[in-house]
Amino acid sequence: MSISLRPVDAACFDDVQLVFGTRGQAARCQCQGYRLGWYDQHSDDVAGRRELLRDQVIEGHGLLAYLDDEPVGWCSLAPRRDYPYLRQTTWKGRSEDKDDPDVWAVTCFVTRAGCRKQGVARALAVGTVDVARDGGARTVEAYPMKPAPGKDVPWGEMHVGSLGMFLAAGYRVVHTPSLRRAVVRYDL
């Protein structure tokens, strides 16, 4: 079994929805949390969030993973300025331009039920570098969890990925806004 990656486009929106499924947080959020903020991502307007995700996919802002031609994983990445909620969650102690169009952000991973623990998210983390470069980014950053030794991170918080998978993909830590969160970057 081999994992292949594909930048998203209008033709693969159904594959994105297959990865998200019809139940659970991914199906409900539609990967709009860092774009909309806490209250809007938890509203009852799932159809509205799905249409926002469709627009994101049409713009080419995302990456899909396939395992033997079956869609199994999703990663959201786009120019950082497209994610206004990041300013509230990862910005403590940072003074750079929040709207720098040359910095792209990796905000979310979803691995299809039944396909977890097969390296899907790690492959997607590696693939973010090429997608950001092809999109014109100068830098790509992410906001993974970094659990303390011997501590687990609740499942619902790991949608941002783990620090280890980004370090393995060549990212470096540039900021630590909290005990459990890091900001990592890959300069292109």
In short:
It contains eight helices and seven strands. Helix content is 32%, strand content 25%. The radius of gyration is 15 Å and the shape is globular.
Structural features, described:
Keywords: Transferase. GO terms for molecular function: acyltransferase activity, transferring groups other than amino-acyl groups. It is a single chain. This protein is α+β, with helices and mostly antiparallel strands and 188 residues long. The chain has a single domain, classed as 3-Layer(aba) Sandwich (Aminopeptidase). Helix content is 32%, strand content 25%. The protein has eight helices and seven strands; from the N terminus they run βαααααββαβαβαββ. A hairpin with a 2-residue loop joins β2 and β3. The chain is globular. The protein starts with a strand and ends with a strand.
Span between N and C termini?
Answer: 30 Å
N-to-C series of helices and strands: EHHHHHEEHEHEHEE
Radius of gyration: 15 Å
Shape: globular
What is the CATH topology?
A: Aminopeptidase
Largest sheet features: 7 strands, mixed
SS strand fraction: 25-35%
In CATH's first tier, which class applies? Answer: Alpha Beta
How many helical elements? 8
Structural class: alpha+beta
CATH architecture: 3-Layer(aba) Sandwich
- Helix coverage percent of residues? 25-40%
Give the overall average pLDDT.
89
Q: Please state how the strands of the largest beta sheet are arranged side by side.
A: 1-2-3-4-5-7-6
Q: Can you tell me the residue ranges where pLDDT is under 50 for at least 5 consecutive residues?
A: none
Could you name the CATH homologous superfamily? Gcn5-related N-acetyltransferase (GNAT)
Number of E-type strands: 7
**Whole-number count of domains:** 1
